[in-house]
Amino acid sequence: MKSFLRRGLGSMNGRLELIAGGGREQTISVFRAALSQHRNSFLMLLLDSEVGYHDGLRSEIKRNLRAKIRHDQIFWMVQAMEAWFLADRQTLRDYYGQGFKEKALRANPNVETIPKPDLLRSLNDATRKTGPGAYLDNKAAHAIELLSKLRPVPVRAAAPKCEELFQVLTQKLVR
Question: Would you kindly state where each structural domain of the chain is located, as residue ranges?
Answer without folding.
Answer: 2-80+159-174, 82-149
